[in-house]
Amino acid sequence: MGLALGLAMPPGRRRSGRCPLPDHVDRDPSFWISPDGRRWKCFGCQRSGDALDLVRAARSCDLPAALEHFRDWRGSSAIALARVPAGPAVFEWPEPDPNVYARLLELSPLSERGRDYLASRAIAARVVEMSRVGEIAADRGAFDLLRREFGEDRLDSAGLLGGEPGGPRRPLFRGPALLFPFQEDGVPVALQARSLGGADARWMGLRGQRKRAYRLLGEDRMRGVWICEGVTDALTAAGLGHDALGMLGADAGLDDATLALLRGRDVYVVGDNDDRGRSFARRLLRLLSTHGIAADEFRVPTPFKDLNDWSMCFRG
Fold it and tell me: Where's the Toprim domain (predicted)?
């Protein structure tokens, strides 16, 4: 149905990719298709449904118009297949591949350029070492080695490859870029990269993998936890002496294990100093409250953009 609508659906047998809906610019792949191919959900724009719902979302039309479109495509007898009984789709995220992620980190040591950049952002050197920051080189040699060691299909399943439908698969992390491992009990379970391209710098994430919290937590449960909007602010909070979580969205990564780490501790939510950051803080405070976790908001003072920007005025 999606291809018949002219949408860029996930290629081949993939069940996840970028949202194909024309009004959603999905820079971080958030779209999922159920194993039977009859349900879909976008975790970015929060829309979901069956084939008819996809028609309605893609064409901005009502149900009668969607039914007419479906009849023209498959005939009246196929409409029963388009509708799925109401209820949540059973969704299972692909398993992470810590061995692949750990090997990529081994092949991607942090360069002096990377260290200088982090120092320029007032990220403490001890935090850089503790968090095992790496760096993807521009020549993609690390990915060539990974292909030979693990095979392209395994790299694809691990979320490291992308590409256009029907085209070659290519590494999603383009160097030079800093590489941040998301660790749980010392094991890398996800990765995020940030290009070192000056004005063209951007963040890059794994394709089709569950978003997780970026944990920088010590053993001392008496220390407060600062929940920040993104990796850089979490590194900043850790450098200021706090335990920290970096969130890639207000509800991303708040699984039962993460919530258990927050219970009984002083929790502060730190959003960016803009409308989206304040919305992030409000949503996260409400969500924590529903799980019985009391938290306070820390607001970055004006005119600073975020926690990292504010901390840089204290550098040196």
Answer: 223-303
Q: Strand 225-229 relative to strand 134-136: parallel, antiparallel, unpaired?
A: unpaired
Amino acid present at 207: R
pLDDT of residue 166: 60
Place of tokens 């949408």: 7
Whole-prediction pTM value?
0.76
Which CATH number is correct for 95-210, 3.40.50.1100, 3.30.70.1170, 3.90.980.10, 3.40.50.12780?
A: 3.90.980.10
pLDDT in tens, 250-265: 667 788 889 999 999 9
Distant-in-sequence, close-in-space partners of 177: CB < 8 Å, separation ≥ 6: 135, 136, 193, 194, 195, 196, 204
What's the rounded Cα separation, in Å, for the pair 141 and 266? 44
Evaluate whether 186 touches 218 at the Cβ level (below 8 Å). Answer: no
What is the CATH number that goes with domain 212-316? Answer: 3.40.1360.10
Cα separation, 212 vs 251, whole angstroms: 9
pLDDT of residue 86: 53
| DSSP per-residue letters across 247-288 | ESSSSTT--HHHHHHHTTS-EEEE--SSHHHHHHHHHHHHHH
pLDDT at 77 over 50: no
